[in-house]
Write a structure and sequence with these properties.
By secondary structure, the protein is α/β, with parallel strands linked by helices. It folds into two domains: about 5-30 and about 295-425, Beta Barrel (Lyase, Ornithine Decarboxylase, Chain A, domain 1); about 35-295, TIM Barrel (Alpha-Beta Barrel). The protein is about 30% helix and about 25% strand. Strands 4, 14, 15, 16, 17, 18, 19, 20 and 21 form a nine-stranded mixed sheet that branches. Strands 5-6-7-8-9-11-12-13 form an eight-stranded parallel barrel, surrounded by four helices. The longest helix has 21 residues, at about 210-230. Bound molecules: pyridoxal-5'-phosphate. Pyridoxal-5'-phosphate (PLP) binds near residues 203, 238, 289 and 292.
Length: about 425
């Protein structure tokens, strides 16, 4: 579900009118729905209730402290990819023993920090990293819980920048090398405990097939590692896709609900029905690391039209948000529906919606048919809750936008807008 809908011609998040919210907090402004986040977490958990499972929310999708706190309250663990993310989780009230630590380039400082805090598991992505973790743990007199990330060489059929499970990606260890590494590690490394096996084949998957392929391929490996090394978990990663197009019109913007009358590319029920029977007989704890699926459709970015500009060949709507606030369109051709916050019911025109940043890649839509936008109009870029604010940059010395979390009729500022002093903090003359 999502909680963005028109009421009396004005776009609301839950019970809050977004035009009033934008007047109060200015734009660009990120707005998140707590109800949507809770619903997504609970729905995923309940479809997998037949399985001994644990959901480790992928912090990198949206790492605002209030959102982490909300999810910790739901019982989520956390999949982190840096020391900074661990710091956030602990600050938000999450616990280290619910954290898995992913990523190909963990530094000594990050490993020491995670060992000191006592995380659940390091998910290592190479034998070299495994040996380094062993060495650092030995120096600290600790035993590091570890899993290896297997690269199952399965095509996730998603954008090449968010595909991670093919043998030409930098992620994970070749399927054929995994057992040799576990054997050597079991014999030679004294300061690690082999706790699990992990995989993650990519992001924004809109078909269940690649998941099934990967799970079927890797489950027998997990079974052998359980027998030989007594591992306790198998993490099947994240990657469940969401609907980015026609989200409001369909009344639902989740793949797992499908669109009325159309094909249902990936429903949660399908996902569970396909993988649970394969995974259940393993007798291992199953970890999931969803990010986008939990928060993607729970957020919008509000922006105001600064100018209308008639170019030589095109009409441009120049808005006050840019690629520094939301980089998905520029980085991986990500699509965001754009809708006026106040419904006009009038005519439409073909426009490019562009930001103020000095880059031709700074656009949110090209040649898109939209209701006619006038200067001062407020628009919402939908499905911006995942990989939105977290990828913000100060490029062009533009302060980060503010973030607001909605719960029913309550709106809470969960991150204030940066000011110019924030931009130069830490610099020296
Ligand atoms: C990014 C990432 C995820 C989350 O991916 P989503 O597509 O947001 O669900 C999960 N696991 C790992 C290891 C990741 O790097």
């Amino acid at each position: 579900m999502h909680s963005f809908h028109y009421r009396d011609g004005s776009l609301h998040c839950e019970d809050v009118d977004l035009s009033l919210l934008a007047s109060e907090h200015e734009t660009p402004l990120y707005v998140y729905s707590a109800a949507t986040i809770r619903d997504h977490f609970r729905r995923l958990s309940s479809t997998l209730s037949g399985l001994d499972h644990h959901i480790a929310y992928a912090v990198k999708a949206n790492s605002n402290l209030s959102i982490l706190k909300l999810l910790a309250g739901e019982g989520a663990g956390f999949d982190i990819v840096s020391g900074g993310e661990l710091f956030r989780v602990l600050h938000a009230g999450g616990t280290a023993d619910g954290c898995t630590f992913a990523g190909v380039g963990k530094t000594r400082a990050e490993i020491e920090y995670a060992l000191a805090e006592g995380i659940y598991c390091f998910n290592a992505e190479s034998e070299a990293e495994l040996r380094f973790i062993d060495r650092v743990a030995g120096e600290l007199g600790k035993v590091a819980p570890v899993a290896l990330r297997v690269n199952p060489n399965v095509d996730a059929r998603t954008h090449k920048y968010i595909s991670t499970g093919k043998s030409d990606n930098k992620f994970g260890v070749d399927f054929d090398d995994i057992e040799g590494i576990y054997s050597r590690a079991g014999k030679e490394l004294q300061n690690i405990k082999l706790r699990g096996l992990q995989m993650h084949i990519g992001s924004q998957l809109t078909s269940v097939q690649p998941f099934v392929e990967a799970v079927e391929k890797v489950t027998p490996l997990a079974a052998r590692l359980k027998d030989e090394h007594d591992i306790e978990f198998f993490s099947i990663g994240g990657g469940i896709g969401i609907i980015y197009e026609d989200a409001l019109a369909s009344g639902s913007n989740d793949w797992w609900d499908g669109k009325s009358g159309e094909e249902k590319p990936l429903s949660l029920e399908q996902y569970a029905a396909a993988i649970v029977p394969v995974l259940k007989p393993l007798g291992l704890k199953i970890l999931l690391e969803p990010g986008r699926m939990i928060v993607g459709n729970a957020g919008v970015l509000l922006s105001r039209v600064l100018y209308k500009k008639q170019g030589g060949a095109k009409v441009f709507a120049v808005v006050d948000a840019g690629m520094g606030d939301l980089i998905r369109p520029a980085l991986y051709q990500g699509h965001h529906d754009i809708t006026p916050v106040s419904q006009s019911g009038g005519k439409s025109e073909t426009v490019d919606v562009v930001g103020p940043i000095c880059e031709s890649g700074d656009f949110f839509a090209q040649d898109r048919e939209l209701p006619i936008l006038e200067e001062g109009d407020l628009i919402a870029l939908l499905s911006a809750g995942a990989y939105g604010f977290v990828m913000a940059s100060n490029y062009n010395s533009r302060p980060f936008p503010a973030e607001v979390l909605i719960e029913g009729s309550k709106a809470r500022l969960i991150r204030r807008r940066q000011d110019f002093n924030d931009l130069i903090a830490g610099e020296e003359l």
